[in-house]
Amino acid sequence: MKVITPTKHSIPKTPSVVTIGTFDGVHIGHQKIIKKLTKKAADHHLISVVLTFFPHPRMVLQQNANIKLLNTIAERKEILSALGLDYIYVQEFTKAFAEMSARDFVKHILVEKLHVRHVIIGYDHHFGKDRSANIDDLKAYGTEFGFEVEEISAQDVKDVAVSSTKIRNALNSGDIITATAFLGYDYYINGTVVHGKGVGKKMEFPTANISIDEPYKLIPKNGVYVISSIYNDKIIYGMMNIGINPTFEGDKTTIEAHFFDFNENLYGQKLRIYFLDRLRDERKFESVNALITQLRQDRYNAKQTITKRNA
């Protein structure tokens, strides 16, 4: 699989089957489309191409929207790469690109750059300036330029009943189980371990403070979570607090992971943290001892969750 960016690379002049979208999260609905794409490519001796966009269109067109994404662009490429694609074509989304007419998009991108022979697209797909063109327009362009359009029906979409927005809403409410079911994998964040205040260590719960790689990555709702990570090729489990540490009068959101039966120095390390479940809301305790008592209960509950998950 190769990632193509318009300014740096070109795609072979081989007829392709293409699907188009932002694919934030690359959830089970996206995966269903991509399976259809790779099968079509194999059956007809075409190359499979996902045409995706970065930044997210809403980041450019609604600059005050402050949208948070399920994947960084690096994560999106990684997940897509594992699905058997030949190429990922990343189109930079700018205000100038947003002004491109639907016909120019088809002619200059799909036909001239991607050598499209077949497009697989959702029934409700819109494209071109002001998203003015729909699937009927795309079919008309297919007749003009010599490619076929395969429509993903409304029923197929309803059968999956999932969207990136639903997953974002689940994570924003702390519903990890629903997010996992819709994604088809455990939601995760990537970050670097940085120095904190050392409070956790004094309470017998040393933590790795995580600084997130990209500010647009969605962080789940504040609270305490069951987590896992990979360190030295081994799975390590733990719990993580996202919040402001109200018991210590904190006012800045931090992400602090405590790993069970683990005493390695992680400062400066890059970690990927997987969310397995949510234990509780963050809250202010009347004393440090009360907080420690709760953390011990959290640890017990987290280990129970992990045991059931691995049974």
TrEMBL record:
Pfam families: FAD_syn, Flavokinase. Catalyzes the phosphorylation of riboflavin to FMN followed by the adenylation of FMN to FAD. GO terms for molecular function: ATP binding; FMN adenylyltransferase activity; riboflavin kinase activity. It is an enzyme of class 2 (transferase). Pathway: Cofactor biosynthesis; FAD biosynthesis; FAD from FMN: step 1/1; Cofactor biosynthesis; FMN biosynthesis; FMN from riboflavin (ATP route): step 1/1. Its EC number is 2.7.1.26, 2.7.7.2. Coiled coil: none annotated. Residues 182-307 form the Riboflavin kinase domain. NCBIfam families: cyt_tran_rel, PRK05627.1-3, PRK05627.1-5, ribF. It comes from the Bacteria. The lineage of its organism: Bacteria, Pseudomonadati, Bacteroidota, Flavobacteriia, Flavobacteriales. It catalyses: riboflavin + ATP = FMN + ADP + H(+); FMN + ATP + H(+) = FAD + diphosphate. Keywords: ATP-binding, FAD, Flavoprotein, FMN, Kinase, Multifunctional enzyme, Nucleotide-binding, Nucleotidyltransferase, Transferase. This is Riboflavin biosynthesis protein. Transmembrane segments: none annotated. GO terms for biological process: FAD biosynthetic process; FMN biosynthetic process; riboflavin biosynthetic process.
